[in-house]
Amino acid sequence: MSDESPDSGDRKPATSNAPTVSIAKKQTNRRRVLRTILLTGGVLGAAMSGFLPLVYSQKKRLRPPGALDEKDFLASCIKCGQCVQVCPVSAIKLADLVDGMGVGTPMIDARSQACDFSCDAVQCVLACPTGSLTYHKPNFLPVRTGAQLSAKPILLAKEKDTEPTLNLNERIGVARLVRPEACLAIQGKGFKGQTRGSGFTGKMRYMAVDRWKPIKIADHPYDVAECDLCARECPIKGAISIETVFAPDGSKHKSPVVHEACVGCGVCEMVCPVEPTAIAVEAREVWKV
């Protein structure tokens, strides 16, 4: 017999004894994997939908005028959207998922569109069917110290009318100078032009233009030697003024000063020409002496 081994090129490939996976089996396995991924995503999504509201609910939201304290408001508001529909400047929006446990409840983003009381009678309060927005709290609901207004606010647009006041008893927040270093008044600077730019869609009524019809702020440019827009456009009499104040080093300068008449409407925040705003409303804040 020859000792030479057969040429490897003449060998036939070895056949595997492992069972082949059918196309149908592969498709079944693929569907199983996809189902597992989708179920996992669904479980995580459900978990996050419960977790995110808890996280974001820590951020205070500015509610419409006449709103009850937050817990009572969330308990009584049926999310009907009636207040949204009657707001003449579309200041009221419905909160979405990232707005916490109050998803679907009305809120105001004052920087985008403040409440300027163009409706005079505060129609959102009149439209609310449950008393979540109300002129007068029932006796069993307490009033937080500092939330009560010392007097009914005088609406400048109605100052010469027989009844110039708004029928509000509690503020929805308080304006604060949150970035004094950016304030143009403190810097002694004026302002000329459109306060929030040509593309800003926010509206407000101007007495010199039309007492009853709000117009775009972009259509009302300013030209002031010393910036006073927050005080100039505040709709509530005596809520904000520009006053001379003294710095710690003894130097004096002009500065916006917020007074107890402030109701937290947010007009000052909306018209502030610096970005980010130098003055802002702190939602549900109370007056502190």
Automatic annotation (TrEMBL):
Domain (4Fe-4S ferredoxin-type) ranges: 64-97, 104-138, 254-284
Record keyword Transmembrane helix present: yes
SUPFAM superfamilies: 4Fe-4S ferredoxins
Keywords for this protein: Iron, Iron-sulfur, Membrane, Metal-binding, Transmembrane, Transmembrane helix
Top-rank taxon: Bacteria
Region: Disordered, residue numbers: 1-25
Pfam families referenced in this protein's UniProt entry, alphabetically: Fer4_7 (PF12838)
Range of residues in the leader sequence: none
Transmembrane segments: 33-56
Name under which the protein is recorded: 4Fe-4S dicluster domain-containing protein
